[in-house]
Amino acid sequence: MLPDADDLPEVLLDLAVPHEDINTLVGLRRAVTGDAGTVRLLEECVQELVRGLGEVGGPTSGPDRFGERLAEAPAALGAYFAAYVFVAALPHTRAYHRERGVPADVTRHTLADLGRNMAGHRRRHGTGGVQAPGWLAHHFRGEIYQLGRLQFERARIGQRTAPVLRSAGLDAVPGEPCLTLHIPDFRGPLSPAACDRSLALAREFFPRHFPEEPYRAATCHSWLLDPQLKDHLPADSNIVRFQERFRVARADTGPDDAEAVRFVFGNPCLAAESLPRRTSVERAVGDHLRAGGHWYLGHGWFLLRSGRHGRGPRGVHSVG
Q: Does 317 have pLDDT greater than 70?
């Protein structure tokens, strides 16, 4: 199920795996393929990952069965085992993308999130591994696509968001398709021009490759939508201008400081007193926490296109 030792580095480079991890992954390959139990576990994890491939909200979005199976890997492989699972699943994902007519560069940029994730693991822990395999499962299952600066996840409008959209004049119903925006790290500034380009790409991409799923609204659930950021950043900052694209869907009452610290500093466990102040965003997040404040997840939406297109297919999970 895995490329041989000579071919594996090229596959890993295609997935943007950091160079410092490649020799280790090639060296540990024998520990995977040379043990019958580990090979069987690898096969079962791949089967779990690709079961219902393309059906958004499939097996990996319920109880984390996929993550539970990954945890059964031998200790010698540690957090690297998930990388082998994604490599072994790669032919299935690429075949699904080809079936949908997804351009090769979109496939490559989307699945390169494996490398981004591994870079995040090293930044946080100082060691190699895959940090959030459950998150990457959505990429390899055909649910998330990188289109320029932003990532777009196929989803459905949820029970809490639908009434908000209806109150704004959109005849939305729970279960209707929507796109959820994600803002990946290691991708440069979140400039208005880059976001405009991503949205233009999405408005072309999804009707072409998923015509049975009409997307009228986009949602985002992120600490970047916490309105308190406007109190700490200039009005013309990229983050504030990103916020201005959205209407408020709802507000969280419980703080989530760890989310802001994780995305800005790479480690959610860092104490507020130790946070550096090198950039305006670092100063905003850290100073607010040191002053006794908290950060909250924001929930926003905006209209992608107007008009009633009917309800989409079954099998897409709810958000919001």
A: no
